[in-house]
Amino acid sequence: MSPPRFQLADELLRRFAASLRSAQLYSPGHPIIARNLESLSAAFQMLHSLQPAVTIGLVGDEVIVDDMPMAKADTLGALVRRLQQAGVERITVDRGVTVDEITEFLGAITTVDARETDPADAFPAIRHIRVGRVTVEQRVEGSLTDMATIKRLYSDAVTVAGNVWESAQTEGRPDATAARSMIDGLAQAVAQNRTALLALTTLKNYDNYTFTHMVNVSILTMGQARGLGIDGPLLREFGLAALMHDIGKVRTPLDVLNKPDKLTDEEFAIMKRHVVDGAEILRMTPDIPALAPVVAFEHHLRVDGSGYPSGVTRSSLNIGTMLCSIADVYDAMRSQRHYQKAFPTDRILAVMKRNDGTQFDQHLVRRFVQLIGIYPAGNIVRLNTGEVAVVMNVYAPDPYRPHVRVLIDRDGKRLDLPYELNLWDAGEDPQRPASVVAPLDPADYPFDPLLLM
Amino acid sequence: MAEPTDAPAPLDAGDTARLMDFARACKAAARAVVLYPTGHPAIAATLGRIAHITAPPTQPGPLRITVLPDGLLLDDRAPARGDAALTELATLLHSHLIGEMVVHPGGDVEAWRSFLLLLGRSGESVRGDGGIARVWATMATCHVELREIDYAEVLRERSGGDPAVWTQVITNCLQGRSFDLDEAGIRELLGIAADSEQLANLMTSLEGRAESGGGLGVKAAALMRMLRGIVEVVSRNQPEQLEPVLKNMASAVGHCSPEMLLGLLGHQHDDDGPQLMQAVVSRMTDATISRFVSRHVIAGDTSTDRLAEAFQTLVRDGEEQQRLLALAKGDVAASPLGSTEGFESVWNNVAEKLLTSYSDEPFVSEAYGRELSGARAKAIEVEGVSDDPPERIGAWLGTIATTALRSLDLTLMLDLLRIEQDEERWRELMRPLVGLIEDLLLVGDFDAAADLVGVLVGEARGDGTTARRQIALTAIDVLIAGSMMRHVTTHLATIDEAQFERVKAMCVSLGEVLVRPLAEALSVEERPRTRERLTSVLLAFGSVGRRTIERLKNSQNPAVRRTAIHLMRQFGGSDALPALTELLDDNEPQVQREAVRAILNVGTDAAYRILEQALTGGTSQSREAIMQSIGLVRDDRATPLFVYILGHIDHRGALAPVYLRAIESLGALHDPGGIAPLRAALYKGEWWAPRRTGALRSAAASALARIGTPEALAVLDEAVARGSRGVRSAARAQLSNARARRQARAPGDGDR
Question: How far is CA B636 from CA B379, B607, B630, in A?
């Protein structure tokens, strides 16, 4: 091993790390990215003047360039972590590689996730760069079209949320690995069977409000994000950020956190501190995406400048914060707690819409209503002709006329063979149900509406 | 990375103890031979121990030890329990890239000493000699066999995996491009085409990778492109192989799904598509077709209707269909499905469908078909409804684009640092803060880094409480002790001037704690532009930067030693004279020259004395080097030195050439300040050394003539008029030359 070659390889790794990090931190076209890419390209050229191809690999805990062990993986931190996350174990770069090719490759490596469904599609074919990778499959067991699987997934998620909360409470940091793994499953479900998962958020869990709220807000945020076309790793970041939005409350004294009555001003000031605590906790937790502490910090800020933490102003809010805020308010108002009666769904949505343009982005609220429906999937509702039905699916243009399954006829008799109706296709027949008139409390009925979906 | 395999059972207690004994003895002896001088009793004792435990009575057979980065295996089995000696020895062996060693019984003390001394060398130096296995092989001892880790082999692309050519072929086909393979790629493709199994795998990969949204037509078109491409490549390169390749294709097509097969058969987009598929289908053997049927019946992965449609397209004749179904039944009966209850009934159902012509027309009315399509369209409409224009959605998504997110993170950190009042919590923020600054420096976002550094510096200056000040100071120390300078130097050569100024300001704001790492970075820096900018940063620290000079002037790198001189010149003053004096003896001429220039720059008597001492006390070689350096100085500042030399150095003896060079240099500088000493030199000389005296006077007269001012010429006139014969002669010769030169000059030159 000649020292110049070693030094060139060392320089290459440094520039690779800088380029990759800049591609992660800045949007395409940013001058910092361009500068780092030029440097990296020059480093490749220098090594290519000595040899036709350069191979960078991870072997055990060593980072290797060709046949030279360069450094322990832990000393190259972010670079190695990213390569591992992308499932890359070997990169071979041939002489003649262009800046465009390097750009394309770095673009792929910053977005690829080894857990994606089809690893073969993950990396584009680049003429001078070849990638050897391993695949980590992490799939939800069972079919996501099966309501029982979705329910199990939801229930497991609530348990994991409890563990995450506990780890944050006892160790000062939430268990990011467990949280990520759980979000992976939920994100898959959101992508594949959003309706069923959203329906689960209508469940009322009187004992585990904190944890069900974490999971619900995560699902509702991912559901909205999915509607905006967000998918893959970014969708999971939204889910994780939303899951952790209230994690700062682990530092809130229990007598304040669990107080059944209205909080005094002093207590409310203490409660408000959770946004700062949450951001600090998450900012100090490794492997938490940057969005999470931002959302934790900002989720009580409103677009009209109101909210807290006081003294903090934002000219505009990011979409992650806005979606999480909507989900947070919706779920908090929907849930029944000791000190607060649950609002009927339409009432909640009315409240949120009343704040259109002041507290929440009106367009996002409209989208949320379209997503959830005035009568969300899984709700038991009464139809205009008196039947009782469970909402199966929401017809976005008209949230009052969802797709339902009728369970009880207009005479109050439980049907042996429930039937389905598209209320938006009702037509002119006055005898045929055409719309929902009221939500009903599932506790009044001897069946689980979710299992009837 | 590797496929997980079942780990072999751990070693039993006896073998574990044996391995531990060996590791402990080996480690102890390795330490002793390196730490103690030869002959130290510890060496004999430890080597004796390792020789003993590897002697034939104790170790009857060879020990095959596999080296992992943090542990050892004996015959691929891990010890039953861990031990620090195992880890330490593994680390040592791994640092030399030893992957496996076999210890044969009977190695004596000397053999072990050789081996352990080799281990005691740095891994880098051994690798510089060709690697430990090679070096060890040349040492002619064989009690230890070594196998070095060949990382190149480890990283080599595996042929059995997913070769690049597959990816390229598949991508090209999916994107509708023609093949663009280099020679190696074509070779690879021909190899694939010659193997029906590989060909089938390639086709399956393509089918799997075709975009799901693209529909069957897209997949079929891609697969057709692949088949046509392969035929073209084979026809061009190995036409004699075309027939076998078509047969392989026929076999491979039998692995497609019924839907894909139907897609291929119905493909009308290419002129030669039907013809090619006809050629392929006509080569499908009975076995291929029957297995196509049986495979899908067993797997149950497709609708029987589609399978029937494909089967009937492949085989038109009714009797043929029955014959092939009988073959297929045999395959299915041999599978686990065949042993299930009711198999006969299931098979009869399938066979009936396969033999029945497929068409939905009799069952689905046109109106009902339209209704079904309408329902699907409505479902899509519901899913895709959105009143938001793309620009609005784009703007929302822009708020969490990577750069925006970076900015949010930065703002958050600044907010937290501002809002947090609790000192303990504020202290906890330092770790992510330092991490973020390092991140920003790594990528070269110096503006953002400077914002955060500004907060730290503000607190360290005492803007907040005493405790916070202490926390900030500690954080600055941590930042500087980390990778900060490494990241900064990576970018220094490429950033523009304005950015560099900001980097400089940021560095200076951190205070003098940065001076030492700055000097360290500078002392090893090779790139001129980076060195120049690091120097500039160092200079910005003012006199504090002077402390770094000692380190820099001892650098191995001559360029860095010159930087040290440059810094000394910049700082000025005579404090640097001792350091500069040392550098006069530097073995690099350029460094010497710079040192001379720096000393001249100081320009005091003390400085000249140093040069005089260097000239008088040094070797002829160093004297020559110094004189050359001085001679190259074309600067009035050198005049006092030459005057000093003429006044203090003897024009005779070993230093006579120095004296003469000083005279020449004074003439070259045209400085009137040199006239008086030159006049004195003109009159010097001894009658008993006429040649030396003649040379001296001639040089002095020549120098005066080169100065050429009226005062200088007056000195020559005076010498012609009143000097001794030798003086007159020298002055006359130069005076006439000087006059001739003056006449040749333009009238505007005046008296000069």
Answer: 92, 16, 12
Question: Do B186 and B164 meet the contact criterion of CB atoms below 8 Å apart?
Answer: no
- Amino acid at the residue A132: G
- For residues A140, A143, A147, A148, the Cα torsion angle rounded to the nearest 10 degrees is -70
> Nearest-CA neighbor of A20 among A113, A131, A111, A134?
A111
The answer to whether residues A147 and A453 touch, using CB atoms and an 8 Å cutoff, is: yes
Query: Mean pLDDT score of chain B, rounded to an integer?
Result: 80
Q: Within 10 A of B246 (CB to CB), how many other CB atoms are there?
A: 20
Cβ of B402 and A78 within 8 Å?
A: no
The proportion of chain A whose per-residue pLDDT surpasses 90, expressed as a percent, equals 22
CB-neighbour burial class of residue B175 (10 A; exposed 0-12, middle 13-18, buried 19+) = exposed
Residue B371 clears pLDDT 50, i.e. is over it: no
Any idea of the CA torsion for B16, B20, B21, B26, to the nearest 10 degrees? 140
Q: Do B157 and A309 touch (CB under 8 A)?
A: no
Which pair of tokens denotes residue B8?
């072999």
Per the structure block, which two tokens stand in for B242? 């075309």
CA dist B105 and A72 (Å) reads 34
Residue type for position B78: A
- B403 with A1: Cβ contact below 8 A: no
- For B375-415, how does the pLDDT look when each residue is reduced to its tens digit (9 = 90+)? 334 433 444 445 678 888 889 999 998 888 889 999 999 99
| C-beta atoms of B444 and A24 within 8 A | no
Q: Hey, of A40, A110, A131, A283, which one would you mutate to test binding to chain B, going by the most B CBs within 10 A of its CB?
A: A283
Write out B648-690 in H/E/C secondary structure. Answer: HCCCCHHHHHHHHHHHHHHHHHCCHHHHHHHHHHHCCCCCCCH
Q: Which residue has 């001739």 as its token pair?
A: B740
State pLDDT tens for residues A376-413.
777 788 898 899 998 888 776 677 788 888 989 998 88
Q: Taking Cα atoms as reference points, which of B357, B283, B360 lies closest to residue B316?
A: B357
In this prediction, residue A446 carries a pLDDT of 74
Q: Do B152 and A69 touch (CB under 8 A)?
A: no
When scoring B66, B151, B171 by the number of chain A Cβ atoms within 10 A, the one with the most, hence best to mutate, is B151
B490 chain-A contacts, CB cut-off 8 A: 14-15, 18, 39
In a mutagenesis test of the B interface, which of A1, A190, A291, A362 is the best target, namely the one with the most B β-carbons within 10 Å? A1
Query: Which of A369-378, B274-283, B716-725 is predicted with the least confidence, judged by mean pLDDT?
Result: A369-378
Helix (H, G, I), strand (E, B) or coil at B723: coil
Q: What are the chain A neighbours of B496 within 8 Å (beta carbons)?
A: none
Give the CA distances from residue B236 to residues B185, B239, B252, B604, in Å, rounded to whole numbers and listed in that order: 14, 6, 21, 85
Of B403, B432, B495, the CB nearest to A26: B403
Identify the DSSP state of A340.
B
User: A29-65 pLDDT, tens per residue?
Assistant: 888 888 888 889 988 988 887 777 788 887 766 788 8
Q: What is the DSSP letter of A413?
A: P
The gap from C-alpha A258 to its chain's centroid, in whole angstroms, comes to 27
**C-beta neighbour count of B527 within 10 angstroms:** 14
Nearest-angstrom CA–CA distance, A235 and A140: 17
Two structure tokens written together for B745: 């000059």
Put the strands of the sheet holding B71-74 in their side by side order.
B71-74, B63-68, B98-103, B144-148
Nearest CB to A21 within list B127, B152, B442: B442
DSSP secondary structure code for residue B146 in this structure? E
What is the C-alpha radius of gyration for chain B, rounded to an integer number of angstroms? 44
Q: Which residues of A48-59 are buried (b: 16+ CB within 10 A; e: fewer)?
A: beeeeebbbbbb
> In this structure, are strands B98-103 and B144-148 parallel, antiparallel, or unpaired?
antiparallel
Q: Which of B208, B415, B494 has its CB closest to that of A39?
A: B494
Q: Contacts of residue B444 in chain A, CB cutoff 8 Å? A: 18, 22, 32, 35-36
